[in-house]
Amino acid sequence: MIFNEFSRKQKLFIFLFGVFLTNAIVAEIIGVKIVSIERTLGFSPLHWATPWGDFWDLNQTAGALNWPLVFITSDIINDYFGKKGVRFISFTTALFIAFSFFIIYTATLLVPADFWVEVNKGSENFNINSAFARIFRQGLGIILGSLSAFLVSQIIDALVFEKIKSRTGSKHIWLRATGSTLISQLIDSVLVIGIAFYAFGNWTFAQWMNVSFNNYLYKFVVAILFTPLLYVAHWAIEKYLAKDKAL
Fold first, then answer.
1. Which of the residues 15, 84, 96, 237 has the least number of beta carbons within 10 Å of its own beta carbon?
2. Where are the transmembrane segments (predicted)?
3. What DSSP character marks residue 139?
4. Other CB atoms within 10 A of residue 26 CB
């Protein structure tokens, strides 16, 4: 088989690219939903007063759920394939995200089968086609916000990662991975919400700040919690690649 002719490092790149691409596209698609963390966990919203007005509740985009995996995978790729590898996966993934939005938008324009609409009405006379279009028909703002934030944050993540690695060498994996992730995800969290829902949407400034901060808070905590997994991943990768060197 052709795949067997690939080196272990080439197979590693394909696998990491697959993890990166899958999580990025899924996060972009589900990112339109805003979730309440408090109600999900079974308690009332915090409703704390904020410096920018309004009140602060733990509301964030569903897309933040698996977004830390995108940056963690990016850091691993940077470690083994350098800045060029990160640039390649970043721009290629952005292209696939744009393509995905185009296909999804086209699907919302197709005329639904009458029986499909009818069998899903239920007692509340629910219109499943309208719901499908409302959820999946991403506006221009969301597309621009997603792609802009994705590319800018990925470039910054790679630059910060490389800067820290040039100072520390192969030591301190946690510092270069976590440090670059925390900086880039702050920019990503503020930029994507600002463009998608504030600049092109109908959100207030307070809503922009609240959700952006919550997204970043979640990513911050997950990045810290995932730090031990980075060491496990590096150990497993080194062990995997060592078999090529032994041949």
1. 84
2. 12-35, 88-111, 140-161, 173-200, 216-237
3. -
4. 18
The whole-angstrom separation of Cα 237 and Cα 239 is: 5
- Residue-wise pLDDT for 7-56, tens only, equals 889 999 999 999 999 999 998 888 888 999 999 999 898 888 877 667 78
Query: At residue 228, what is the residue type?
Result: P
Rg of the chain on CA atoms, in Å: 21
Of 28, 24, 29, 31, give the one whose Cα is nearest residue 211. 31
Q: Where are the beta strands (DSSP E) in the chain?
A: 34-36, 48-49, 55-56, 59-61
CB 6, CB 14: distance < 8 Å: yes
Q: What residues contact residue 226 under an 8 Å CB cut-off, 6+ apart?
A: 68, 72
Contact in structure between 189 and 215 (CB atoms under 8 Å): yes
Q: How far apart are CA 39 and CA 36, in angstroms?
A: 6
Alpha-helical segments (H) within 169-225: 173-193, 205-225
Residues 75, 157: contact at Cβ < 8 Å? yes
- Which pLDDT belongs to residue 184? 83
For CA atoms 190, 195, 196, 200, the dihedral sign is positive
